[in-house]
## 1
Amino acid sequence: MARKCVVTGKGTISGNNVSHSHLKTRRNWKINLIKKRIFLEDENRWVTVRISTRALRTLKKKGIKAAIKDNGESLKALAPKKYVGIQKKAI
């Protein structure tokens, strides 16, 4: 599984370590990801996602729908593969 936030799409970036003598060596900056259970009110279920801590702050402020809409994703990005394509039966 890639180190990537499902809400914002942010991932690992690379660059250079620069020493005092300006020697450059490659390095990576990893994103701060956590596993979090989020309740989807529309679907009336919990979803476990790997989300960055920055995106988690945004979710608390704006709400799940607004945060996902701002980043161009859809709620389907949060759904595990086993639930994709399953329709709720009308009662």
Note: The two ends are 37 Å apart (CA to CA).
## 2
Amino acid sequence: MALDFMSLLGSMVQGSMSSSASSSRMSNAGNSVQDLLASLMGAGQSVKNTVGGDNLAAGGIGALLGALMGGSRSTTANTLGGGMMGLLGMMAYKALKNSMSGQAESQSYAQQHYTQPSPQQQNSDAEIILTAMIDAAKADGQVDSDELGRIMNTMKSSGIGQEGMNYVISKLQGPMETAKIVSAVRGRPDLAAQVYSASLMAVTVDTEAERRYLDKLAKSMGLSQSVVNNIESLTNGDLQC
């Protein structure tokens, strides 16, 4: 049976939320993730009005916002994974749209890329996002053992089976998978932008190795410097770009 990567991603997010250092990583300029999510929820509604119907981001962000603000115990790892994917989808939309010139072009992009993906596609995309976050954590050659233990404990408490935990451990201990990520995002600038956003959230970019890794990843995925700058502005809390 295929792994539930949405739940694995949700557990990673849940584990990270228990660490103040990880919360800081997800808001590099000191702005709270709650503020980022709340602003993007408003942007998600704007996209929904522009495109019509549901879109990738509008449905899931609320779940992640609620969990970050002390949501209920009934919040599942799968729901958190969906919220994280919603956040990343909205960030990708804003970053890509803002790099385009002309309202017609950006609206056309939204119509093409922000329809609701199938559950299979969501799970596949979640696997790539999870791989990217793990790779970013390994970029400087160091994996914090305390953080690993916290994530594993969270996965266990949220119902992730041994197969899922073994998968994450093997990824953390294995080689970098940049080639796999680059292949998966080929022809999908929206997914490439999500991968870069997730990678940036996963680490505090305070070493030269991490900066080099992120620069190489963006270039390998074909992201323009304009899109990269937009994503970094969003993670720094500049939601008006």
Note: Residues 77-97 form the longest helix (21 residues).
## 3
Amino acid sequence: MEKKPQFGGPRRPSAPRPKPGRRGRPGDRNAKDPYIINENIRAREVRLVGDNVEQGIYPIDKARKLAESMELDLIEISPNAEPPVCRILDYQKFLYQQKKRQKEQKAKAAKVVVKEIRFGPQTDDHDYNFKLKHAVGFLKDGAKVKAYVFFRGRSILFKDQGEVLLLRFANDLEEYGKVEMMPVLEGKRMSIMLAPLKATSKKEQKSEKQEDAPETAKDAE
């Protein structure tokens, strides 16, 4: 009678084997290090671009030696190209420039705030001045202002009055905003769009004050 092999205890579950082609490698990118550089670049040859090198396709060893001779880093910037595209730069400086560029792009893509102000075709002066004051505040805060006159029923006959009202509104706000869209009638609404003027920098304000300052006794002589 055959003896069954005895086990000293329960076997530990073995870790799953990585699938072919899915093994990790030192050059894999992560959130902290978004680019593959230097010895971690796995391609046999790369295309070098940039102002500080003779552009073309280089064997990876030659490209690395060229980067070392310049005391810079070989950075893989387009890994999916055939062959991958690389640049020779200071890696830390390169990362700083990339972050700065992304920050500038986000600032440009910031959402524009649009504040709406509604008038009737026969708005009285009290209501007009009240809404004008609000518009000044919106423009100072950097928001756009869309003012419109809403015509109900037969009040569409007073569309000329509505246009005059909106042009007066824009004229009264010329110190704070510029007309981005002239009065346009869309259905029962006539609207005008105002964009805030760029704020004068402190340096410009100081320069203007110096130009406007009275001449000194020495200058007068």
Note: The chain is about 35% helix and 25% strand.
## 4
Amino acid sequence: MSSSETQGSDPAAQPGQDIMPNDEMSNATGFPIVTRTDFSETTFLLEVEHPQMARAARPGQFVIVMLDDHGERIPLTIADFDRDKGTVTLVIQAVGKSSREMQARCQVGQTLFGIAGPMGIPSEVSHAKKVICVGGGLGVAPIFPQARAFKEAGAYVIGVVGFRSASLVFWEEKFRSVCDEFIICTDDGTAGIKGLVTQGIETAITTHGDIDEVVAIGPPIMMRACAETTRPHGIKTMVSLNPIMVDGTGMCGGCRVRVDNKVKFACVDGPDFDGHAVDFDDLMARLQRYRPQEAAAMERYSESCKRLLVEEEVR
């Protein structure tokens, strides 16, 4: 799960709402940002100080983040946690109004207004002896805690990650430290295998005839492709779903998904589900539902940014 917003949704945005200048944000109370890393023009990492969250977090869980007291509630899968340092790590893709606002305003020394969680059922680290952990795009980050957990449980871990090109690859050494084998796939062939993560899965299955489980996190179309790749082999495949979400507690009903022809709520029944039972057509249709609102929110945000630039020039 990246978030409803990272799919572009901003149904709660208010018309005419302006962004808060950076100096106001720095004076706000909240959770300190201790590290920021930019992986690309749109993808960035925030390490946030939150000792209680770091102690409670488990692989597969997510948090609800608010940039400020007027901000949208953004669900983000926990990409990492460090109990000794008391920090949680989030990797965010700036594609919608709120995530772009976070990209512009979240700097080391500033704070996030609120972080609620950890939410969702932690991923089951089974007794599987050989596991493939697959991450695509933004899903690369949250697959890391799962790979590490399987490794700590004694499994032979094969990591498969996919990016558009070599310039977008991140955390390679981090993954190699917890994976027995590590396969990079790129769309343009500039790193690792040229092709999709499904080719990496097929390579691993061909090499190892005793894969017990596959765990995949990424865009819905990627997770569906992973599930279809493993289906003929009868390999258990778990996916982490990222439907539109508001409260994260099962109250709003926005994160409804269909699994094995039954309605489930990703926030409280998941986010992990059997990939062979998920109705991906329904999931992807629901993710398109707020496109007009998303476009309107981005337009308002862009206008707010322009006004601030004009005001600064006048000063």
Note: Confidence is low (pLDDT under 50) at residues 2-28.
